[in-house]
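Q: Here's a chain of 113 amino acids. Please give me its 3D structure as tokens.
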Amino acid sequence: MPNTKVPIAMLRDIVYPLTLEYSSDGNHLPIEFFMLTIPNCKHIDLKLGYFSSNAIRTLSYGFAQFIHKGGTLRIITNHFLSYQDKMLLDEANSDSAVEEAEMKRLTSLFVSR
């Protein structure tokens, strides 16, 4: 596995395997690809058959760099979620709705004056 601690300026600077294949049972693991590429992206569209927050957690170091650099992420997935992920999303949506309602309330205070 290449040294993932060396900063890479561009995706084209990454040395990919000659076969361009990454496999969990091969010489080049998918995590290697993601840890090299995610921090260097500006925008990511993930099209997943199944979403799991555990995958995001596993790649959190790369995602932290990606977010710190202002990267944006869109995830397209099917409707099957683990119970834990559904609870996390429900909680996030609930928090967002509360924040939005509070922002509208505060805005109305300033507008009415």
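Q: Can you summarize the key feature?
A: Strands lie at 43-47, 72-76.
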